[in-house]
Write a structure and sequence with these properties.
Elements lengths: L2 H17 L7 E4 L7 E11 L3 E12 L2 H21 L7 E15 L4 E17 L5 H12 L3 E9 L4 H26 L3 E14 L4 E2 L18 E13 L1
Antiparallel strand pairs: 1-7, 2-9, 3-5, 3-6, 4-5, 6-8, 7-9
Helix pairs in contact: 2-3
Length: 243
């Protein structure tokens, strides 16, 4: 291999190494190519009250023929959709997640074979409720509209814009990292310098998902919904130089 090809290969290798670690979703600041110093991690946590409730619900109908099962499911789902929109939900916040037509069979011992006894149609959607105070009444309305065909799987909560909480969490994380580095420098008998490398990752811990599988309208009457609080956490890794 001649010198020109060796130089090109070395340049590509440097570029690839420089890109490692810069994946989407993480913030990385590296002001020094040296990896010497005091490495610490800091964590900052804040709590937030969820402002979005996502309801997972659907319709399940079974009949002797596909046409009858689909017709029954469509009628029930139309009523459910009307209940959602009449309670103030925008169509953009209602999304189909799953649609399935499945044969229902039983085993025939006499003939030693499966026999088709009907067809089951399942249609599920997620509904994003932006006014959590109305979540209970919306669940009640949906259960009443779909009747015994209604399937309400679960409801979970989230914050629509968690970025609004990242600033406070970041302050806490950086303060935590600096406190650790300062203590380590004192214990080691060295002087702490400036940060030479900073990386960040953030995540949120939602409240537990409330599962409500196959409840009837009577069981869901006057449904109480409490979103509680969720935790938003941010972690930083910082490398401090040693003076």
């Amino acid at each position: 291999m001649n010198k020109k090809l060796i130089l090109i290969a070395a340049t590509i290798l440097v570029l690839v190494v420089g890109l490692v670690g810069c994946s989407p979703g993480n913030t990385v600041v590296n002001t020094n190519s040296q990896q010497e110093g005091i490495w610490v991690s800091g964590q900052g946590k804040v709590t937030a009250v969820p402002d979005i409730a996502t309801l997972s619900l659907g319709i399940e109908a079974q009949e002797a023929s596909v046409a009858d099962a689909q017709s029954k499911a469509t009628e029930a789902m139309n009523k459910v959709m009307d209940a959602l929109t009449s309670n103030g939900m925008a169509k953009k916040d209602i999304q189909t997640q799953y649609f399935n037509i499945q044969k229902v069979t039983r085993w025939d011992d006499k003939n030693q074979q499966e026999v088709v006894i009907g067809y089951r149609v399942t249609n599920t959607v997620t509904a994003k409720i932006r006014n959590i105070d109305k979540a209970g009444s919306i669940i009640d309305a949906v259960a009443a509209a779909g009747g015994d065909l209604t399937r309400i799987d679960n409801i979970d909560f989230s914050v629509e814009k968690p970025e609004a909480y990242y600033g406070e969490a970041r302050d806490k994380a950086m303060a935590d990292a600096k406190a650790k580095a300062t203590q380590m420098a004192e214990l080691a008998g060295v002087t702490l310098g400036k940060p030479t490398y900073i990386s960040e990752s953030a995540y949120s811990q939602p409240p537990p998902i409330v599962r409500m599988a196959e409840m009837t309208a009577a069981e869901l009457a006057e449904t109480p919904i409490s979103p509680g609080e969720m935790e938003i956490s941010l972690t930083v890794q910082v490398v401090y130089a040693i003076k």
